[in-house]
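Newbie here. two chains, one complex. Structure please?
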Amino acid sequence: MIRYLARRLLSLALSLIAASIVIFAVIEIIPGDPAAYMLGLNASPEAVAALRDQLGLNGTAFSRYLDWAGGLLQGDFGQSYTYRVPVAELIGERIQVSLPLAAYALVLTVLIAFPVGLIAAARRGRPADWGIMAATQLGIAIPNFWFAMLLVLLFAVKLHWFSAGGFPGWEGGLAAGLKALTLPAIALALPQASILARVMRSSLIDTLHQDYIRTARAKGLTRRQALLRHALRNGLIPVLTIMGLQFSFLLAGAIIIENVFFLPGLGRLIFQAITQRDLIVVEGVVMLLVFAVIVVNFMVDIAYGAADPRLRRRR
Amino acid sequence: MRARLPLQLLIGAAIFAAFALAALVSFLWVPHDVTALNIAAKLAPPSREYPLGTDHFGRDMLSMLMVGARTSIAVAILAVGIGMLAGVPLGLWAAARRGSLIDEIIMRGNDLVFAFPSLVIAILITAVFGPSATNAIIAIGIFNIPVFARVSRGAALSLWTRDFIMAARVAGKRAFRISLEHILPNIANVLIVQGTIQFSLGILAEAGLSYVGLGAQPPTPSWGRMLAEAQTMIYTAPRLAILPGLAIVLAVLGLNLMGDGLRDLLDPRLRRARQ
């Protein structure tokens, strides 16, 4: 397990380096000079050159990459072109909305999907299964931002249980913050929970056809015991894969959902930065999102190894 | 043995065919021109002339939805094609050479691409080339590649430990032939399920990208942009927000039912279990 872990850690580091190179390279392709853009059409060449210098835009691409990547390692994302404050500061403010939102949605997803998927698998072919399959079928088909609009229409406009958008900040207390994130989190979680519940069901049913389940039943375990003791652990492997995949949907979804609810998160930051050509902010936010996905997938890999020792054995 | 066609396959195919037909017909004929604005007829309720009413510019909603179907289906189909054509061979290759350098390279390459959610890819592409439907196809397609690679590798890996693969190896078959003849047919059901999910996700992603302005651009109607335009009027004219949303839900639902039905039809293991 130690060697498995060490190898995974190494590839984690390599992935992060590769991702940072890709992001840096893509931003490099973008035509146009941020300094000239910031100063407008009438700026003198000297002023543009001075600003380029100040922004660290001079030097070879390689040295600028090293500057940027080295800064990232120390938590320095550079200086925003438009806000003239450290990018880390901007991200720090916004991530207090986006990360709790994605995490809240993930928790809701698992809380809904696991029991629902388990019940459907255990009651396969019965009315409960039919009902769950029909409901999740619908859940998968609903776009989260449209569902968000419907939630606003029902709970904010008609029932007045929640506000239609905005975020009071965590200073207003945990309860108020969570309340503001509840509708967005539900909107994000519903489609993902529907997918995960179906994956869970089909994976468990697949596992239930395996010989060792027949053996378990033959030695006197009830269906339920065989399901919980043997099928669940093996059936969880595909479920983990999908959960890993889903995290990036939740993050990306959060960016879109923030638009519906006017939440001051990373999504709003990145769209503003694109229109203002504040490329260093785009670079920083994209790197952060990508970092999060890579780390989550690293953890899924580790969980694989823990759930199925066979996957560790042959390198 | 001839299996009966599953009911959900028929229902799903019927629903999806209706959208596909509407999209095809829209190339030849639409009830009203979707590029012509008619402010005098704005926000008209459903009538004989406008079966689903008009939007805030007086455009016919039915015509808008028909042309929007074209955009959604084209983007999603092409994106799934990109994902499958590139992803499945990579996944099978990695599984066949499990633990080797090539496996490591493919999987780390996968992780790398996969670490970029389709929205983030779209953001990067848009930052470079500007927003368009083509960029949406590329963004969603690139995102689909590691999904198919991962799923096919994962499914293939567990097959490679099974006895019938061992038998094929003992019989002297090369990894390429085993992948093609034994692994691929056995993971086909997984790929169909995943293909269905990715197709529906493609339609959903296209809607999402258009909604935030990174997809199809005006005047090309798209369901996502119709929703974005309707959002500000959701209190006064909820119909404008509800109709495109329903179109997305129905199209995706039809596709998913179709996929599930196909899986039941194609997977002999499930069929045997049912009887």
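Moderator note: The two ends of chain A are 11 Å apart (CA to CA). Chain A touches chain B through 57 residues (CB under 8 Å). Thread marked as resolved.
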